[in-house]
Structure formats: C-alpha cells, structure tokens
Amino acid sequence: MSFRIARKAGLERVHCYDERDIEWGADNLFEYIATQEPATQAKMDAAIAELTNRTAEDHYRKSLGQFLLQTYSEKEDRLNKSLYLMTNSAGAGTNFYGTDAAASWWHRNFRMYANIQKLATPDTRSIVIGGQGHKAILKNLLQIDGERQAVDIVPFLRNQGPSELNPGKSTTLLTDYIFSRVRFMLSSIPFH
User: Fold this and answer.
1) What average pLDDT does this structure show over 98-122?
2) What's the rounded Cα separation, in Å, for the pair 133 and 84?
3) Which 3 state secondary structure label does DSSP give 85?
4) For the purposes of burial, counting CB atoms within 10 Å of the CB of 78, is it exposed (0-12), middle (13-18) or buried (19 or more)?
5) Looking at the 3D structure of the chain, how many domains does it have?
C-alpha cells in the first residue's frame, strides 16, 4: 500500500520508520508463565487465539476499507494494548518478566516515533502507515505531541472526507486532494 500511495502522489522516496534493534523481549515471560503462572498463560493463549481467528475471518469476509475501519477504532486500540497489560504483572515483585516484556514493546514504539518525529518536521505533510500493534501506541504519542497534528483517516475510509478539506464533495483515501499535498511518506511494513 505504501508504494502505491507514494507512486500516485508522485513521491520519490518512502521512508521506513521501523526500529528492529529493539524487539518484543518476551522469551523470559513465556518461559515463566508456562511454568509459574499457567492461568495467565491460558488467558493469554485464549485471547491470542480469539483475536487471530477473528482477524482471519475479517480478512476473508471484509473489504480492505471495512477491515481498516474496524482496526481504526478505540475499541481495537484498547484491545491491542490490553494484551500487553494482561501479562504485565507476571513475576511482579521478583523478576518482573511481564513488565520487562511490555516495556520492550513500548521501547520499540518510542524509537519508531522518534524516527517519525525526525522526518515529520514543521511545514511537512506525511502519511504514516503501520500495523495495528504499532498504530495503537503511535496514535497516543501523536495525540500528546504538541508539534505535530493528525488528520483522522476514518472519514476517508468512509468515503466522506472532512468537510473542511473538501467541502461538498465525497472523497476517498486515494484522492487527488491527499496526493497533491503529500511531501513525503513514512511507512512501516507490518510484520505482526
């Protein structure tokens, strides 16, 4: 999707903001809950299985626009972040494996956001594309960043477009309005 949008917008470059030096450090967590907290393991396994099955079903039954609309909801953002809180207390008071795993995920996302900040300077327009696991956190960071402003993508996905951007006309994500204003694009290929 990133390269198609960049081509349509006439962009010469697509920048990747991903940060792979920091991964989700969950190995100790998984070993610990498998032997010391089987109830936490079962709860996490059930949540992951339910999410995986629902996502697979949605990929099969929904259009890309419908799927993206669903993933751009506050409900989905809360669900995504709650998965990391589900195991956060594992090993609390002793080894803090759950906390360390959750912190590693946030650490990676803070680094990714730093890459976005470096490129999305004042007087530039950017499109940031990433997976749901990152979007939920990056969206929160953008909301509290006083130097950057977001445009909600949901109206574009609904083919409505914000009226202040395109009064009286229906629009989609792939309109000349957006492409004529994009100066560069930030992109991350979702691996999760």
Assistant:
1) 91
2) 10
3) helix
4) exposed
5) 1
